Amino acid sequence: MTAVSATAIPSLKLRLRRAERARQRRHAALILPLLVFLAFTFIIPIGTMLWHSVEDSDVARVLPRTVASLQGWRGTSLPGEPAFAALAADLEQAAREQTVPAAAKRLNYDVTGFRTLLMSTARRVRATPPAEGEAQAALLDIDPRWGEIETWGAIHRASGPLTDFYLLASLDLHRTADGAIVGTPAEQAVYIEVLLRTLEISVIVTGLCLLLGFPTAYLLASLPARQANLLMIFVLLPFWTSLLVRLCAWIVLLQGSGLVNNMLLWTGLIDAPLQMIFNRTGVYIAMTHVLLPFMILPLYSSMKAIPPAYMRAAASLGAPPLKAFLRVYLPQTLPGVGAGALLVFILCVGYYITPALIGGGGDQMISYFIAFFTNETVNWGMAAALGTVLLVVTTILAVAYARLLADRQTTGGLK
């Protein structure tokens, strides 16, 4: 047998590297469509949302001289005459170019009434430009609010190009003219309450889904395959029905003269119809019905993988049925419980249609306000900031679940 020559070894290594690169290119070509799909449907939309939550360029584009004159202003006293002159010059130009509404809309998010202030001042300045050195007196004569530090603070906070205004507002916080972060007055603070309400509804609905889904999944996993497949059809049946149809059905069932109230009245359990619609009760019932399959499926998958011999072995060793269930069966279902609970909770946090149609005014979740800012007021920054809050909450939950699952697997491996 002839030995391989020294010159043949580099050639062999080169061919192997080429073959490996060709294999990697084939694999990359296979996953490239998926990467493009994820980029356009997941990564780019989330990146755009995060950008809109901190982007702030309208005021700097419309009032560039004013923004430049306020660089270094500390917000402890009124700016000097140069800032007033710069504002007058910017407003005069913006009035001619009809760009004032863009800046007025942004500043009105911060200070109520700023839109009217800026629009009226721009009209007056364009009609009668102030003389040199008299801009401050002229603006104060037009509206005394130009003599308030907070008015100039709003312009300074909106100087861009980046801002924390929307993110702070989504947490009921704001910056004062001197840059300090303070809480929003109690009569104006709504978003923390809405966030807590969203989390409360999500936790309760997740608990109800787990309470109803666990025995259902246990039954499906215990039955013979033919019967289990038949029952699984009923579990999956809601996916084949429009969500709006299901919600309208619940409105019919739960209303004062609906089937549920009529049945309760007929049995004598109640003397008057119960209010079960357009309140929190209706939200819990409808959301639990919609999201229950998302709890059952992970539980069923986890339970189906548990060998029945484990319970028989525990019984043969003298363990009572309840103790065997708690010590042997239940711990093996925890991955399914965690996956189902996480899936249902994340879906609940971002739910919009069910609370909007079946809930009352005090039952709306944070997604309702995101839709409101997107469709009604077209405040993309605030909608993006609230979306960022939801993203942070779901990311924290996903990371926490992954850590708990990893710790459990590590502990199980050590045992």
UniProtKB/TrEMBL annotation:
Membrane topology: Multi-pass membrane protein
Localization, UniProt: Cell membrane
UniProt-listed GO biological process terms: transmembrane transport
Entry-linked SUPFAM superfamilies: MetI-like (SSF161098)
Domain ABC transmembrane type-1 stretches: 195-401
Predominant subcellular localization, coarse grouping: membrane
A Pfam family annotated for this UniProt entry: BPD_transp_1
Alphabetic keyword roster: Cell membrane, Membrane, Transmembrane, Transmembrane helix, Transport
Coiled-coil positions: none
Transmembrane segments: 28-51, 201-221, 228-253, 283-302, 337-358, 378-402
Family: Belongs to the binding-protein-dependent transport system permease family. CysTW subfamily.
The protein, known as: ABC transporter permease
